[in-house]
Write a structure and sequence with these properties.
The protein is of the alpha/beta class. It has one domain (4-306): 3-Layer(aba) Sandwich (Indigoidine synthase fold). It is built from 13 helices and eleven strands. Helix 6 packs parallel to helix 8 (139-146) and helix 10 (203-215) packs across helix 13. It binds pseudouridine-5'-monophosphate and manganese (II) ion (MN). Pseudouridine-5'-monophosphate binds at residues 23, 25-26, 29-30, 86, 103-104, 122-125, 138-140, 157, 258, 261, 265, 280.
């Protein structure tokens, strides 16, 4: 098995320096150029400023890579032939030696192979609206059920069926916790008013949830919902009407499968004249601050237990 881990990340992993990983689908399929590359580099910098080593994950010529270089991030942001890779696509992209952008699911798989425990993103995939008919349920949810990584996000994107997404996570035993809030974040706005499993009020408290899960060898990940700060949030009604319009157009154009999420994201961005993109960027940066500090707290607690 071949995975490439860059020297800085390797050094950090060997010396208990906290590493926070990032996905590449958000770069290749989630945001337009050049905002995507600017955001990817900014998020890495924020993770550094908060005392951790960033590792953006992607597949380069068939090799799962942990810690893309600046040049590679630029390639992922601008090339048109980057495949969106979820779990089922992984063997194909590897065997065909292609470039692949990793979704939440695939980033978790590669992170856990590299022993990275923290992963910052914007929002995870979930049960799509009308998912009860189409059966469009993101593989991210199944991955959270089996792979032990903490995913720090701004909740579940409002383009999805949040209630059914939470039901699914409950069935599969995924712990969903809120940072300073006991309800799920709705990505573009702070509060979906849907109750989640618990609230944590500081970084150490969040880290201890993962430690408990590890200590008792409970399979699967943890989803930490970190609500978007109010100053970057969008108006709920305005957002919902843009989402309804985007969903209608997706239906008329028969958009299906893995194209659905990128289509809806770019449609909502154009309907809100770029406002949704700006809040998307702001919330990822906010997640990077919280994720890096939870990672630091985790290693501090682990170290104090050894002493
Ligand atoms: N959330 C975003 N931007 C994104 C995604 C989520 O704000 O680009 C991506 C993630 O990579 C997530 C994927 O894993 O969309 C989900 O795709 P699907 O619904 O096809 O599983
Ligand atoms: Mn899907």
């Amino acid at each position: 098995m071949k995975i490439r881990i860059n020297e800085e990340v390797k050094h950090a992993l060997e010396n208990n320096i906290p590493v926070v990983c990032l996905e590449s689908t958000i770069i290749s399929h989630g945001m337009p150029y050049p905002k995507n590359v600017e955001t990817a580099l900014k998020v890495e910098q924020v993770i550094r400023d908060n005392g951790c080593v960033p590792a953006t994950i992607g597949i380069v010529k068939g090799v799962p890579t942990v810690g893309l270089s600046k040049e590679e991030i630029e390639e992922f942001a601008s090339r048109k032939d980057i495949v969106k890779v979820s779990r089922r696509d992984l063997p194909l992209v590897i065997s065909k030696k292609q470039y692949g952008a990793t979704t939440v699911a695939t980033t978790m798989i590669i992170a856990s192979l590299a022993n990275i425990k923290f992963f910052v993103t914007g929002g995870i995939g979930g049960v799509h609206i009308h998912g009860e008919d189409t059966m469009d349920v993101s593989a991210d949810l199944i991955e959270l059920a089996s792979t032990q990584v903490m995913v720090i996000c701004a909740g579940v994107k409002a383009i999805l069926d949040l209630k059914r997404t939470l039901e699914y996570l409950e069935t599969f035993g995924v712990t969903v916790i809120g940072y300073k809030q006991d309800t799920l974040g709705a990505f573009y706005y702070p509060d979906s008013h849907l109750k989640i499993d618990g609230e944590v009020d500081d970084f150490a408290e969040a880290a201890r949830v993962l430690i408990a899960k590890e200590d008792y060898k409970l399979r699967g990940g943890i989803l930490l919902s970190n609500p978007i700060p109010k100053e970057y949030a969008l108006d709920e009604e305005e957002m919902n009407s843009a989402i309804s319009e985007a969903l209608k157009e997706a239906d008329e154009k028969h958009i299906s499968g893995k194209e659905v999420t990128p289509f809806l994201l770019s449609k909502v961005a154009s309907l809100t004249k770029g406002d949704s993109l700006e809040s998307n960027i702001a919330l990822v940066i906010n997640n990077a601050i919280v994720g890096a500090n939870i990672a630091k707290a985790y290693y501090e607690i682990k170290k104090s237990k050894e002493d």
